[in-house]
Amino acid sequence: MTVALGAVSEPLxxxxxxxxxxxxxxxxxxxxxxxxxxxxxxxxxxxxxxxGSGKSVTSLAVMGLLPRPAGRIAAGSILFRTAAGQRLxxxxxxxxxxxxxxxxxIAMIFQEPMTSLNPVLTVGEQIAEQVRLHMGxxxxxxxxxxxxxxxxxxxxxxxRRATDYPHQMSGGMRQRVMIALAMSCNPRLLIADExxxxxxxxxxxxxxxxxxxxxxxxGMSVLFITHNLGVVAEIADHVxxxxxxxxxxxxxxxxxFHRPRHPYTNALxxxxxxxxxxxxxxxxxxxxxPGTVASAFAAPGCKFxxxxxxxxxxxxxxxxxxxxxxxxxxxxxLRWRDL
Amino acid sequence: MTNDPLVRIRGLTKHFGKAxxxxxxxxxxxxxxxxxxxxxxxxxxGSGKSTIGRMIxxALDVTAGEVVFDGTPIHAMSQRQLKxxxxxxxxxxxDPYASLNPRLRVRDIVGEALDAHGLARGAARTARITELLxxxxxxxxHADRFPHEFSGGQRQRIGIARALAVxxxxxxxxxxxxxxxxxxxxxxLNLLQDLRARFGMAMLFISHDLDVIELMCDRIVVxxxxxxxxxxxxxxxCGDPRHPYTRALxxxSPKPDPDARRTRNLLQGDIPSPxxxxxxxxxxxxxxxxxxxxxxxxxxxxxxxxxxxxACIRQESPRSEAFEGRAYxxxxxxxxxxx
Amino acid sequence: xxxxxxxxFLKRLFRRRxxxxxxxxxxxxxxxxxxxxxxxxYSPTSMRVTQRLRPPSAMNWxxxxxxxxxxxxxxxxGGRASLGIGMAVVFASMAAGTTLGLLxxxxxxxxxxxxxxxxxxxxxxxxxxxxxxxxxxxxSAANVVLALAIVYTPRVTRVVRGSTLVVRELPFVEAARTIxxxxxxxxxxxxxxxxxxxxMVQATFIFAYxxxxxxxxSFLGTGAPPEVPTWGTMIASGQxxxxxxxxxxxxxxxAIVLSAxxxxxxxxxxxxxxxxKLRKAL
Lengths: 339, 339, 282
Hints:
heterotrimer, C: 11 helices, elongated, disordered C terminus
């Protein structure tokens, strides 16, 4: 069952100017301060960043799962287009309405399936519970749907495995169960937060292929969060790069890899082992980005300036806006035209 | 200066637990590490790579087989007899957060190695600690701080300084950069290469990331479920992989190139449990080229090129020739081991 | 966020005002006990037969007992004994329990023997065990300390063993072994330093239990001999006068309750502060 993708001008999910603050004992921190992100209908958008970039916090904010009372959305809007066509702002949505969306229209899968699945319930029961809640099906029908979902995610012998507990399954299987759980109510948006980071590379390939197939078959949109640029190149249609709480570049995937315009994106791609260069003595040298991200948060002006090899005088004082420099390609940099 | 290998392991085997839940972590592994060589151990979970590293260091006892360090068998020695050998081989750990005692200052962490072997006292000790910190790219004043005041990359440097303190001839690096951000990984990898160039120690580099291993290592051992699948010089193994598992690993590793996306031959199924490894060739349950003979006996390592050997009865042809599932005659003779 | 500065430590400990309050009250009690010889209005043993069983008044803030002795003074001196015994029990049980716990947690061979012993002792009610031990040892303040230390050591052993089992598996302990560090140093530096937090929490609780237990034992007549003025012996000798002079029982009782309560609140505060941090620090 493939859904024909028509020309949709409006994104399924549109985040504008999102800012999230956390209250801690040492004062308030703002791990996310300027995020603009679009997820297009039926496409995969990758959200890329290293630790401290704020990518996970952003996804939690979308799902309304920020740890309370410490975390809250300080500013911005998260516009979600419902099946009926109306635009809902998820910021400030009452909890009851958010619960109806969560697991239903918007689903999320996490990095570590062992802690995301309830260890005392069988996997079939967990999926059935979700189905009963959101689709109102009676017990037997819900369980049948659960078995059906396990089959969709290519778990062999689904009927028998539905009665297994999470600890009886391997990491790859558990992640498939998580996906089945997420897909059980036909979500329109799937948020995947580093779903393959803890998996072996051959299993990762299977899971990525599965997510992509489900996306195509169900016309679902995927927001894929990762730090692995290889994975991004494999599955993403569109990429948004975050650094120190801000979006610094956003572009279709081929544009981003062939012609990265932000110095951070450029440097990040160059850091990959696959891009190592040969030194005169024959050794292969990997390029790195000097310094750490910790210094970025306090920096006035451009957050990447302290580590940027192209930083000029104005960079440390003026904070650049996210401008759409080239068709479909947004950059947050004062000097990108010169580079 | 002798040409004998620094470390030689033969038939190295490790079992955990007891029947019926006996875990076959490592089975009959043979290889050697030459002086000053960087050897890579690559494999997914259950491959036994970390276990092998720990057995070489005698952090774990050996179930069967031998470990010979510089001509002396150490696999049966008591902890007291091993003490002088502990000076000659050291380890760098994966987790920068848990591998340093949070209650000790950096100077005590690094100095502990000096104290344990009586290498320096008083002013000489302080000077040596400063020297070690500077070698790894930190500063003298960092000696007074606690680990939590440093970033992940810096902590890893502290761990490396600790390993260097005794001037070891062998460093076992167990996934030393897997827990670090990509931009920081490069810094640590470059540091390890610099140290090797400067001090000439041998390194056993353990990782699941084939890209990193390809970058850093002179020779590679590919492991699956406790057994050696392929062994050889890096250029040979990565450029002309002969074992179906090595090929699968290379193909499924995500490449940061969106145009390289193609339908790959994904391995089906999960990695089998080491409690019940498949009979004969352990890879046969997922191998696209498996035939019934593969279940009958464990395939021995056979030479396919200079210093290059694989454990496969199908004897994969070189990449340049199209492979159509026919058995090719085995290449010249059979050798013990891969040297 | 770490315990490296004492200011940050105190700030986090006293995040709950109740804990701060408990600490202040405890400090007052302890200071009163320590400086009793200097600040007590009377001597604890001076008897004024004409002033027997007087209710609280301007002259005797907490009244007088059956021998005319000032109750306030005796409560303060009683604190020296009761709190002193408590402290001694804490030190003794910490020392023994930590040693046993470390050995039990680190060496599997010893674990079996030590833990069966611990289980056996913990299956007996504390007070009964203490009474039995005192019957064997004979009654004296020193023996109360010894008996209670024996009673509470298993508790400490269990806690330390549990933490040792966790810390033992951490990479930095493996790193120390790889370096060739002696086992003694591994136990005393690497493991001990990292199990110190739960030990501290246990110490405050045991202090509270010891004060209560001592009072109970003395009340039953099997604790410190009646000549030694502890809060418990005061209640024991004052209980026959409860119809006429309830203050003889009331004030030492309040002292016991307050001390135990404040210690437990302080212990709770310590545990709350250290618990999530324990996960972070490790």
